Amino acid sequence: MDNFFALIIGVGGDLAATAADASAVHALLSDPLRGGYPAANITLLVDEDSSKEKVLNALDELIAKTDQAENATVVVYYSGHGLQFPQEENPNLFDYYLKTSGADKTRKEETMVNGLVFSKKINRIKAARLLILLDCCHADGLGPKRIDALEEMTVQETSSNRGLLEKLTEGEGRVFISACDDDEESVILPGSKNSLFTEVCLEALHGKLSPADEFVPVIDLMYFVVKEVPKRVLPFHHKQRPIITEVQNLSPDYFVCRNGDYKTAEVQLEDFIIDNSAERLLFLQEYDNKL
Q1: Distance (Å, rounded) from C-alpha 210 to C-alpha 64?
Q2: Which of 86, 163, 201, 244 is the most core-located residue (most Cβ within 10 A)?
Q3: pLDDT in tens, 190-249
Q4: DSSP character for 158?
Q5: Among 259, 253, 264, which residue's Cα sits nearest to residue 218?
Q6: Strand-pair partners of 15
Q7: What is the Cα–Cα distance from 77 to 26, expressed in whole angstroms?
Q8: For the sheet containing 94-98, what is the strand order?
Q9: Is residue 5 helix, strand or coil?
């Protein structure tokens, strides 16, 4: 897996759980028996290390590394907050920003990552398979609040995940998933260590849907996220539906990481294992919370 790369960002600060989310994703991907990513190919930026300058530098380093790699697989994970601000010259138009450590809304260009800059750098990554996971628009602080308390909070009208996703170029082998829609919040459920979106991603990356596969297919990850997140939050009378980009020409052989729960003994039962990839791909194509 020398051609597998990852950039993992957790802003921390007043969104403390985002650092925990990023650290959990890093722990899984860097585990030789699970994610299988080479340590030298993973960059983790949390808390003070997730400043605008360090995030942009890490993206440049990722671009340089993948430029030299053939048939690369790249994962970029961000856990934080996305904001859009009306343009001074035209209030009807908005600029999108990703919050980074030390962010100051009065100096957003100097202290946050402009969405246009982010998308341009992402589009410069030369990878055969590119997965972007955005756990954005968290409820304030993501602390151990009761979920009914989250419902009473006012969703910021200036938050937008779609604003960023729409800037990213779509194409074969490129998958972008955001934790929730613009009028929703990415929440952490009672008793959970991680936000719901990240928690479900981690379960999928652990191979929950892929026990018979040595590697975790991206189709299984996408399917599990869009099915499980809305279902698990429903008993708490809350709404959270991930956004995914249009699913076109997605190969079933697009794998994200090693499956730590893979059982070699099940190879003997391959003829009896049902391949659900076509059914899951059809579900994703018909999923109505897409760009």
Answers
A1: 32
A2: 201
A3: 889 899 999 999 999 998 887 778 899 999 999 999 999 999 999 988 899 999 987 766
A4: T
A5: 253
A6: 12
A7: 9
A8: 82-86, 94-98, 113-114
A9: strand
Question: pTM for this one?
Answer: 0.88
Among 167, 147, 165, residue whose Cα is nearest residue 240: 147
Q: Report which secondary-structure segment, H or E, holds 148.
A: helix 147-151
- Percent helix, percent strand, percent coil in the chain, to nearest 5: 40, 20, 40
DSSP state of 182: T
Round to whole Å and give the CA distance between 221 and 201: 7
Question: Which residue has tokens 């138009």?
Answer: 93
Question: How many angstroms separate the CA atoms of 9 and 40, rounded?
Answer: 16
CA-to-CA distance for 146 and 290, rounded, in angstroms?
29
Q: Give the integer Cα–Cα distance in Å for 199 and 229.
A: 9
* Burial 61-97, CB ≥16 within 10 A → b, else e: ebbebbeebeebbbbbbbbbbbbbeeeeeeeeebbbb
Domain 4-286 has CATH 3.40.50.1460: yes
φ, ψ dihedrals at 122, nearest 5°: -60, -40
Instruction: Tell me the CB-side half-sphere exposure of residue 184, using CA atoms within 13 A.
Output: 25
Q: Which amino acid is at 10?
A: G
* Pairing mode, strands 113-114 and 94-98: antiparallel
Sign of CA pseudo-dihedral 222, 224, 226, 229: negative
Residues pairing with 12 in the sheet? 15
Distance between CA 119 and CA 97 in Å, rounded? 11
On whether the CB atoms of residues 145 and 191 are closer than 8 A, the answer is: no
